[in-house]
Amino acid sequence: MAVNSHQAAVAERTPVTAWDAQGVRRDFPILAQRVHGKPLVYLDNAATSQKPRAVLDALLDFYTRDCSNIHRGVHELSERATAGYEEAREKVRTFLGAREAREIIFVRGATEAINLVAWTFGRERIGVDDEVLITAMEHHSNIVPWQILCEAKGAKLCVTPISDSGELRMDEFEKRLNPRVKLVAVAHVSNALGTVNPVEEIVRMSHARGIPVLVDGAQAAPHMKVDVQELDCDFYTFSGHKVYGPTGIGALYGKAALLDEMPPFHGGGDMISSVTFEKTTYNVLPYKFEAGTPNIAGAIGLGAAIDYVGRIGMERIAAHEHALLEYGTRALARVPGLRMVGTARKKAGVLSFVLEGIHPHDVGTVLDREGIAVRTGHHCAQPVMDRFRIPATTRASLALYNTREELDALAAGVWKVKEMFA
Ligand code: PMP
Prior knowledge:
This protein is of the alpha/beta class. Helix content is 41%, strand content 16%. The strands form five sheets. The protein has a seven-stranded mixed β-sheet with strand order 4-10-9-8-7-5-6, sandwiched between helices. Residues 46, 109-111, 139, 141-142, 187, 191, 216, 218-219, 239, 380 line the site of 4'-deoxy-4'-aminopyridoxal-5'-phosphate (PMP).
């Protein structure tokens, strides 16, 4: 797809050394608005992040110029749409450091990716008395699919506990790696705590015992450089909408040898090679797992998002967000009665906290009146809340366009909550 003038301007402006915070913010039109009369401070990025104009343009370009179904047309528009979709796959391949484009399956998001693995790989490989090993910090989407599978198969879901700071207990993890474990499924980064898990070590220990590993990268892919070959994980998942791309699109990476031997997930158009009423043979990778008309525009938009973060550089984004995380942690620590939930030594982008005697929903409501968007609740990680014996937290989560001034506004907002509820 042609580089439009805005994309060229972004590329030209991309700073080589200094972080151009205002330049980055200008790339995200939604951020310029006021909410309840105050400048919007968007700190709900772990739920979904905002989209740069490059992504909006890519969606508009697709629907105004190239809209057509893919893979089956001989006409020009279909060829353009197919090329855009497959280019996006190649961008995801590079983004994740995968060896081959056929190892990238487009899905709706991390949730669908995990369900896909549960209902193909899991269905084949997990039987009576087998175990699936997860952790106590998983998002519901990396718990429930395994629970459903285990129930159906007579298998057992086992859980590695976490420490008071929200770190995975690696000693306990090792204890649970026994011959019955047929899959380890673990978050790269916890959405509720921000903990970065030692995924490489987890993979090494699991592989030493012949156990494959799925990594839920939904909260890692937006914040750090991911290299699936370096991690050596067997499956890796992420959602486009958290990486500045559209909703309804994400990717599953799987090692080709595993994907090849797995049965299909959904049946339908495009995933077949031939169909008779007696027998269907399946298409090659990755199409075997992409039944029906996919989210073509979404994939192209995700490709544009990957280009966008690539122009800035994932390492620079990680460094910027890390500095913000430290700044925000210090600012919030000054508020009396505030307790941070999740204080792991290695963290990414998440400030989850409770205020003594004040319900997180009240915190969120007051902050909203200040134009500050945070999330309150259990963050689809109820077992994490149970572990810390709290019903909910207030969670501020960071993205590349956030600034220190916004974290000052957050801290000031929390002080205001304290005054109101004192
Ligand atoms: N895993 C983690 C760690 C997440 O934070 C999320 C989204 N909050 C998901 C999985 C599910 O992502 P999605 O809803 O985009 O499928």
